[in-house]
Amino acid sequence: MNLIQMGLGASLMLGAMIAAPDAAASKGVEVEHLGSNNTLIRITGDSKYILLPVQESNDDAGISILVDGKLDRNINVRLAKSKVDYYVPFDLSGYKGHTVVMNVVTTQNRSNVREAKEDVCWSDLRLSDSYDTSNREKYRPAFHHTPLYGWMNDPNGMFYKDGVWHLYYQWNPYGSKWQNMTWGHSSSKDLVTWEHEPTAIEPNGLGAVFSGSAAIDTENTAGFGKDAVIALYTSAGVSQTQSLAHSADNGVTFDIYPGNPVITLDSEARDPNMFWDAKNRQWVLTLAHALDREMLFFTSPDLKEWTLQGAFGKGIGAQGGVWECPDLFKLKVNGTDEEKWVLLCNINPGGPFGGSATQYFVGDFDGKTFKADTDASGNIPTKWMDFGKDNYATVSWSDAPDHRRTLIGWMSNWQYAAEVPTVQYRSANTLPREAGLFRAPDGQIYMSSAPSPELTAIRHKAVVSGKSFSVGNSARKFMLPATNDGICEIALDIEAKKSESVNLLISNKSGESVTMKYDVGAHTLSFDRRESGIVDFSQDFPAVTVSPTFEDDNKISLRIFVDKSSIEVFGNDGNFVMTNLVFPTTPYTTLAVSAKGRSARITNLSIFPIKVK
Ligand code: FRU
User: Fold this and answer.
1) pLDDT tens digits along 13-60
2) Which protein residue has the closest C-alpha to ligand 1 atom 9?
3) Ligand 1 test: best mutation among 154, 168, 327, 412, most atoms within 8 Å of CB?
4) pTM for this prediction
5) Which residues contact 404 (CB under 8 A, 6 or more apart)?
6) Which helix (H) or strand (E) holds 558?
7) What is the pLDDT of residues 548-599, one digit of tens each?
8) Any residues with Cβ below 6 Å from ligand 1, and which?
């Protein structure tokens, strides 16, 4: 250490003793270090935001925001230690004219205040009237919902009202990893183009705002007014309890019910999902009894007083992980008048290809509890909604028009969601899907999820249109649309005839590809993403996923949606679905179709560019 460094060290130590403002902080921000893990940020300037510098690999710092000396809220931010990955905005506009102090507790082990002062975050704090949300990500999808910035997981509280589809989501406004769970909000008139709405529900003294549902109280059972939008969500503090909120402005802002929580248990339970049971004139709520791996059913006349009525799931179906995010609804079996209930039970881990996935049961609900159908041998089979790795926390919209049961999932997997190669935001939702029921060749009833009709409207004029041909060993190649870099829909019908397999290869100029193989004898479609692009950010990412095709005539029709970093394959009107993320280093440009063994017949091959706004 030279003399100048020693002198600086001494003055820093003196500074520490009298807690003087740190001269290095930006204009309008005063930083006082109180100890090795405690620092005060005083905001003296007058701007819309303070931008907080984040280093993703760092631990969270706990920040208490004091307004005029009173605790307003607590947030957790991975404040930067040695390098700034990006900034997150903390909105100060609600505090105009008030004194704002941030009391920061960092969790890093440090021996003295001098070390704390060296963190780069302190000198990089800055006030600003704007926060740049323009897209900086090459993998951000073009026709899937994503948050403007920050981390997103489960879709929440979706309802449809007055022509608008509302979508809330688990959101971290202060970083691109899971934390500070808040209900973000987006709305859409076409399920494809999403408007970003103001934050809907924020954490409070009962905890963070975990997943839940919303519905319209058409009969004013709760007393918040006819057609009030009611949300039920999990307050996740030390315990998980269920909370009620209502909105009188169509879901833009919510008032938290003062009598919360409305349901308490002495064990982990979350993700309340409710609907109005018109026949029995009651609200029904399904709650995930997460660690017990079962779903609980409650009823209520007014959304406030709930009575436990039944439970389903102990020892049934996939049990390899916690049960989360339920949904319960009735559907007609395709082509019949038979009605059946479907219970969605998302599970993590324990999915068919590792990590998280959506399982479901088909059965009956008597207003109190659910009973699953058995197969021919008297067992309750495990059924999966999607045979890819990246569809989780699927739930449906309440009050959708025309008796539609429209579903959406989180297009990621808890195994690697926080490691995928994006920074500004993390995670998209799946495409919206329409749930139905069909009877498969094995005699059982399964749930289908077909692309929502709105997705047909975004097709541009096809670059390959209605091509029919026979194909054998040597591949027929087709160029994918060059517009919009790596986004398109591919539709085709495959008549495998006596071929062993039909193969689709989607590839780019960098030698990366996805292979889909229709194994005719096995009646399966596989999806191999091991060579699809960047795969090494997690050992769980490279994978081959396999779906049954639920047919016995060697024919499948496929609709394949490619959107920069995802491929969703819908087979036979959604009778089987595979959703997988991919991160090609350059956009996919080519489709190659071939068959093994004898030749196969391909009809109606069309490739559509997608209209994006
Ligand atoms: C599912 C889940 C839910 C919970 C939420 C928290 O992905 O674990 O059970 O409510 O995420 O963000």
Assistant:
1) 333 344 444 545 678 999 999 999 999 999 999 999 999 999 999 999
2) 324
3) 154
4) 0.95
5) 397, 434
6) strand 555-563
7) 999 999 999 999 999 999 999 999 999 999 999 999 999 999 999 999 999 9
8) 153-154, 170, 181, 210-211, 234, 270-271, 324-325, 393
